[in-house]
UniProtKB/TrEMBL annotation:
GO terms for biological process: folic acid biosynthetic process. Its EC number is 6.3.2.12, 6.3.2.17. Residues 304-421 form the Mur ligase C-terminal domain. Keywords: ATP-binding, Folate biosynthesis, Ligase, Magnesium, Metal-binding, Nucleotide-binding. It catalyses: 7,8-dihydropteroate + L-glutamate + ATP = 7,8-dihydrofolate + ADP + phosphate + H(+); (6S)-5,6,7,8-tetrahydrofolyl-(gamma-L-Glu)(n) + L-glutamate + ATP = (6S)-5,6,7,8-tetrahydrofolyl-(gamma-L-Glu)(n+1) + ADP + phosphate + H(+); (6R)-5,10-methylenetetrahydrofolyl-(gamma-L-Glu)(n) + L-glutamate + ATP = (6R)-5,10-methylenetetrahydrofolyl-(gamma-L-Glu)(n+1) + ADP + phosphate + H(+); 10-formyltetrahydrofolyl-(gamma-L-Glu)(n) + L-glutamate + ATP = 10-formyltetrahydrofolyl-(gamma-L-Glu)(n+1) + ADP + phosphate + H(+). InterPro entries: Folylpolyglutamate_synth, Folylpolyglutamate_synth_CS, Mur-like_cat_sf, Mur_ligase_C, Mur_ligase_C_dom_sf, Mur_ligase_cen. PANTHER family: DIHYDROFOLATE SYNTHETASE-RELATED (PTHR11136:SF0), FOLYLPOLYGLUTAMATE SYNTHASE-RELATED (PTHR11136). Functions in two distinct reactions of the de novo folate biosynthetic pathway. Catalyzes the addition of a glutamate residue to dihydropteroate (7,8-dihydropteroate or H2Pte) to form dihydrofolate (7,8-dihydrofolate monoglutamate or H2Pte-Glu). Also catalyzes successive additions of L-glutamate to tetrahydrofolate or 10-formyltetrahydrofolate or 5,10-methylenetetrahydrofolate, leading to folylpolyglutamate derivatives. The keyword Signal does not apply. Belongs to the folylpolyglutamate synthase family. This is Dihydrofolate synthase/folylpolyglutamate synthase. The keyword ATP-binding applies.
Length: 430
């Protein structure tokens, strides 16, 4: 098989959550454990850092990987979903896995993967572990796909676990309350392995504290360790001054990821880096921290986080897709100078949009659309639902058509925002 045929096999033969939604979710570790055993348990050949959370885990993962690269470690990074290229999920020192490596792995193992009934995500996880081992990776940053406890990535024993935050998302699979969702994320906590919690909340802190106590694991709340004492936004970077609370030492850091919400991710990432340096075999200098953060997006090709696509009119896209994430995006929309705001919105059909739509400003002009994905919520259905929350606008069936229409309507002082779904963002950044 060539690369395109290999991808076709993967997406058609092995159910992908990205393509199919909840029906593709296969909880449990039995299949991935059996497959990795046949591969020789490649995940045991390098140090790992395991990251879960409702939002921010992609940004934190990329920041950590960039800093580890600057610290001189050969670094693997496994994230999901991808925006444009399947290989975005698996990076070594910022470079995507070669197409031929994907082809060779599937050619060699497709019979076993089919026999075991692996999900698309389980196969991809095993591919990442195998490639990292082949590539002599020293440390890998591993992002969970969904949840934590039963996620395919949870066969690793990391040197550090991180949970960025807890919000209401994937409730049908993870639970309908914050404590229930937190319990699933807390499933990544391993015996005697420290865990960093990015955002405290009295509604779920006890869940993590109980899990950490049972596993005899140190629990660290990032907000207790570091405080952001100054923040400013530049054109292509934002600047942070963060203070380490135990000794009041101040770190001046630049980040080439935009969005005010990155403040939370920076505090989480810096806490994780500090703990890695203090309590694990890794050595991470302040220079590596500064240079890694300054190049976090560029060195790992991360896209879709408050990404500027054009200047006049200012055109921004963001992959925030649940109420917890959209809240921060909408706050920044309100803080960004503009005359009229045009919002291009599209969602998938399994998303709880009733919790998301009320967050958007009623005075904005909307262009309701749908991504070219079989999970897409029809644009007309979205428009009808949006009306219930006082959001009116046009229905345009394609993302490209919606963007063209927004540019036709907007003047230079206006602002265009594109979001709602990773798939919508993927179509505008491609």
């Amino acid at each position: 098989m060539n690369y395109n045929q290999t991808l076709e096999f993967l997406f058609s033969s092995l159910a992908s959550y990205q393509e199919k939604g909840p029906e593709a979710y296969k909880p449990g570790l039995e299949r991935i454990t059996a497959f990795c055993k046949q591969l020789g348990n490649p995940q045991r050949n390098f140090y790992t850092i395991h990251i879960a959370g409702t939002n921010g885990k992609g940004s934190v993962s990329h920041i950590l990987a960039a800093v580890l690269q600057q610290a001189g470690y050969r670094t693997g990074l496994y994230t999901s979903p991808h925006l444009n290229d399947f290989r975005e999920r698996i990076l070594v020192d910022g470079e995507m896995i070669p197409k031929q490596k994907v082809v060779n792995f599937v050619d060699k193992h497709h019979a076993t993967m089919t026999e075991l009934g692996l999900s698309f995500f389980e196969m991809t996880t095993a591919l990442a572990f195998d490639y990292f081992a082949q590539s002599d990776v020293e440390v890998a940053v591993i992002e969970t796909g969904l949840g934590g406890r039963l996620d395919a990535t949870n066969i690793i024993v990391p040197i550090l676990s991180v949970v960025t935050n807890i919000g209401m998302d994937h409730m049908a699979l993870l639970g309908d309350t914050l404590p229930k969702i937190a319990a699933e994320k807390a499933g990544i906590i391993k015996k005697s392995v420290p865990v960093v919690i990015g955002e405290m909340d009295d509604r779920y802190n006890h869940v993590f504290e109980q899990a950490a106590s049972e596993k005899m694991s140190k629990i660290v709340y990032a907000e207790n360790e570091f405080t952001c004492i100054n923040h400013s936004m530049g054109t292509d970077k934002q600047c942070f001054s963060v203070q380490r609370n135990r000794d009041n030492k101040i770190f001046h850091l630049d980040l080439d990821l935009m969005g005010n919400y990155q403040i939370h991710n920076v505090i989480t990432a810096v806490t994780a880096i500090d703990l890695l340096h203090q309590e694990t075999p890794l050595t991470i200098s302040v220079r590596a921290l500064r240079e890694g953060m300054s190049s976090a997006a560029s060195s790992t090709a991360l896209k879709g986080r408050w990404q500027k696509l054009a200047e006049h009119p200012l055109t921004i896209c963001d992959t925030g897709h649940n109420a917890h994430g959209i809240k921060y995006v909408v706050e920044q929309l309100a803080q960004t100078p503009h005359k009229t705001l045009f919002c291009i919105l599209g969602f998938v059909n399994d998303k709880e949009i009733s919790a998301v739509l009320p967050l958007f400003p009623k005075e904005a002009r909307y262009l309701f659309t749908q991504p070219s994905n079989e999970r897409a919520l029809p644009a007309a259905t979205l428009a009808e639902k949006a009306k219930e929350f006082g959001l009116d606008g046009e229905v345009i069936d394609t993302v490209a058509g919606a963007l063209a229409r927004a540019r036709e309507l907007a003047c230079e002082e206006d602002m265009i925002f594109i979001g709602g779904s990773n798939f919508v963002v993927a179509e505008v950044v491609e």
